[in-house]
Amino acid sequence: MGIATGVISGRSSPATAERARQCKMKYVYQGHTEKIPIINEILADARPRTRAKWPTSGTDFTDVVVMRRVGLAVATGNARPEVKAIAHFVTGAPGGPGGRSGSGGVAAEGAKPLAADPEALRSFIADKTS
Fold first, then answer.
1. What is the pLDDT along the chain (130 residues), one digit of tens a residue?
2. Which residue among 22, 79, 92, 120 is buried most deeply as judged by most CB within 10 Å?
3. What dihedral do alpha carbons 87, 21, 51, 54 form, nearest 10°?
4. Under 8 Å between Cβ of 121 and 114
């Protein structure tokens, strides 16, 4: 669909590099806990009209600074409670090291799982990105 994707990870992992290659991610940064300089570098390259159209997911404190600057922040099921508290949605599956982001999830306020109500998710995303 022509959407550039990527990963910014505080850890370095050959598995992450391989998964990023398989998924044809354009932006792959590992071993970076300071994520704002990386986001600024990506913004300079991608030149999006607005950050409000950017989605992101996170599990730990280092993800919060990015999650607060995007239009759709998703926390994985095993994310720290502080991360889940600022997320628009929380997945039902774990993510990050040893896990993967899940397709089913719940709204941060405790609404139905996303997989059970895909129209609500589409509506939410459309509202955030229009």
1. 677 889 998 889 999 999 999 999 999 999 988 988 998 898 888 887 766 677 888 899 889 988 998 888 889 889 999 999 999 888 877 776 544 444 344 444 443 344 445 666 666 666 655 5
2. 79
3. -50
4. yes
Kindly state the tokens that stand for 3: 């959407």
The separation between CA 63 and the C-alpha centre of its own chain, rounded to angstroms, equals 9
> Which residues have C-beta within 8 Å of that of residue 67, sequence separation ≥ 6?
56, 58, 73, 75, 83, 86, 87
Residue 35 Rama label (left phi>0; alpha psi -120 to 50; beta) = alpha
Q: Which two tokens stand for residue 69?
A: 């600057």
pLDDT digits (tens, 9 = 90+) for 68-102: 988 888 898 899 999 999 998 888 777 765 444 44
- Residue 17 CA to residue 19 CA, distance in Å, equals 6
Asked if 44 and 74 touch (Cβ cutoff 8 Å), the reply is: no
Calpha distance 109→65 (Å, rounded): 21
